[in-house]
Sequence to fold (458 residues):
Amino acid sequence: MCSVCGCGQGETRIEGQDHAHPHEHDHPHMHEHEHQHADGSVHSHPHEHGHEHGHSDHAHPHETLHDAQAPHEHAHEHYHVHQGDLHYGLGPAHAHAPGLSQERMVRIEQDILGKNNAYAAENRQYFAEHGLFAINLVSSPGSGKTTLLVKTIEALAGRVPVAVVEGDQQTSMDADRIRATGAPALQVNTGKGCHLDAHMIGHALERLNLADDGLLMIENVGNLVCPAAFDLGEAHKVVILSVTEGEDKPLKYPDMFHAADLMLLNKVDLLPHLAFDVERCIEYARRINPKMEVLKLSAINGEGMERWLAWLTEGVDVAVAARQQNVNLLKKRIAELEAQLAAMG
Amino acid sequence: MHEMSLAESILQIVESAAAAKEFVRVREVRLEIGALAGVEIDALRFCLDVVFNDSVAAGANLEIEPVPGQGFCLDCAESVPIQALYEACPRCGGYLVQATGGTEMRVKNLLVE
Fold:
């Protein structure tokens, strides 16, 4: 089950297969370490260690996936008992008077949604290392996301490598439509789940094996509520609102419009047939999010697409340049170290 | 929001800590829930009761520290108290208010044995 929104009985499937794992999640790795502290005292205590796991191909019962206590790659988790704890067993006598309770305070200070954020940070790191501009497309069902993606891929063909992760409760229909354009796509079916989370994206990335220096578009489950709370590691959330949905949506679903940096007002070709107030819609969106960028477009007839494509290619250029800069810095360091080595004779 | 699943996440945090720090019983769980976090406190208490039932935290006392909603109004250039996200500034009525406090949902600490 999704560890935060409670939906989905562990039914996430990636491309029709139960999600394979080479290892069990449900036991922490316990071992003792000796630590020396600044005051010279040394003590050892058991604690959990994060591990990096490679992936092999033995299947694993899926229902434990989202009940995982320990993410399989994560920053070193360390619990130090000394700060603020009252532990009667650590005093000089290493004992407590019989009859008194061993009650002690254990400091946790953990954000309840912290786990998803940790996975998202890993994804963000992956994108940076590979020069990928990743965007998270969110909207109600039926706003025209998939059609927009198909048109976008066709327009960018030959200019920028594009890959797509599709999120839906069931079917691979969206991924099939994307693949028909020639771009790689991976379908994640969330089962009863209502949104994609960073853990799912992490696994999708492993399977996709993306080329460096390109565009990754993540089409989230059609849902104007839940995806707002889940960072996937993307550079931007892009909210797509179609003119058939009513201009008051930004006020009614504020979390989503607050979380997005760009709003695409889609299906503007239909405006002559509707009583949709474009200016009021944009005003509402900017009330919720004063920094919201807005682009009006029609995926079907191409109106406004040039500016959308420019926004995308600019983002890719930034990601590629950042990666190149990191590569150059690392090469420079290697050269410096080699010079030092040479100087040592 | 999704109080039942928040309760389950809280239990996971407690159980992780129990394994790491080797305690067998939780006497009290202290949470910090901000006024702007979108959490219905009564619903959360109810769900925690259910979820703690057969666990290391069965029967534990639940202390929920509320954190008042706080925002920074860009027009007033001042911190203002706010009851809900996306509402107008109580002083000037403008909407350029950024939430600066009261959005947290955390497990603070536990009293254990």
